[in-house]
C-alpha cells in the first residue's frame, strides 16, 4: 500500500543510549567492549551521545575527544562511529568540535543545534569536517523543504511519528529523493513502522536504520513481530500491516515487567 519494498534487508546501526555509562561519565573500556560487540554482531555502526558542551571548557572538550577516540580505537577503520549531540551545542562550539573530532572519521554528527536553526545548520555544514545529520524534530513537509532549500544537512533523519505520520512522511521522502539527499530515519517510538517505510526506498536514499539496543526490545515487549535486527540487518515480516500486532499471551499472562534501562 505504501509502494512495495525495494530493500529486502536494512543495514542497521546501534544507538548506544544508556551503554557504558557510570555515575557521571563513560567507562571507556566498556565503550570499547560495546563497540566491539556491535561490530561482531554485524551492525553497520555505533552511535554515542555527548555528555559535555559549551559550558564545560577544555576539560569537556578533552572528555568528548576521549570518548570518540576510544570508540574509534575499538572500531578500527571499517566500522562507522556516529556522534549524537541531542541539540546541546551552539554554532560556535559545533564548529570548534567538528574540527577537533575530524581526524576520528565520524560518519556523522547528529543534532548539534536546536532543530529550527536551519541557517546555522547550513553554515555548519559548509565548514564541518564531519557530515551533519538532523531532522527528527522537524514536523512537516514545509519544515523539510526549508532545510532542503538551504542545503542545510548531509543526512536527513525524519521521525515517522513526529513529522506527521505515514501520510506526511510519504510526502517528505519524494522531496529528499528529488533533490538527491540521503536519509536515515530516527528510530521513533516503535521501529516497526519505520522499517516498513525505509524498505520502500532504495539504499542510496535510505542508507541506514537505527536500533536502540537498550530500549527497543523493551518498547516492543507486547509486539508479536518485534523489529530486532539479526546479523545487523532488519528484515520485514510478510504479515499484513506494519507489525504492531499485539501478542495477547503476554497481555494475559505477564503482570509485572522490568522496564528500567
Describe, in plain words, how this protein is organized in 3D.
The protein is of the alpha/beta class and 261 residues long. It has one domain (9-253): TIM Barrel (Alpha-Beta Barrel), CATH 3.20.20.120. It is 36% helix and 13% strand. The two termini are 36 Å apart. The model has no long low-confidence stretch (mean pLDDT 93).
Please provide a brief summary of the model.
The chain has 261 residues and is of the alpha/beta class. It has helices spanning 28-40, 57-75, 91-100, 118-127, 141-149, 166-178, 191-200, 216-219, 248-253; strands at 9-15, 45-49, 80-84, 108-110, 132-134, 155-156, 182-183, 209-212, 233-235.
Main attributes of the structure:
13% strand, alpha/beta, nine-stranded mixed sheet, 36% helix, 261 residues, TIM Barrel
Strand content: 5-15%
Helix content: 25-40%
Count of DSSP-assigned helices: 9
How far the N terminus sits from the C terminus, by CA atoms, comes to 36 Å
Shape: globular
Rg: 18 Å
In round numbers, the mean pLDDT is 93
Residue runs with pLDDT of under 50 for 5 or more positions:
none
| Series of H and E elements | EHEHEHEHEHEHEHEHEH
The level 1 CATH classification is Alpha Beta
Provide the fold topology:
Blueprint: E1 9-15, H1 28-40, E2 45-49, H2 57-75, E3 80-84, H3 91-100, E4 108-110, H4 118-127, E5 132-134, H5 141-149, E6 155-156, H6 166-178, E7 182-183, H7 191-200, E8 209-212, H8 216-219, E9 233-235, H9 248-253
Parallel strand pairs: 1-2, 1-8, 2-3, 3-4, 4-5, 5-6, 6-7
Antiparallel strand pairs: 1-9
Helix pairs in contact: 1-2, 5-6
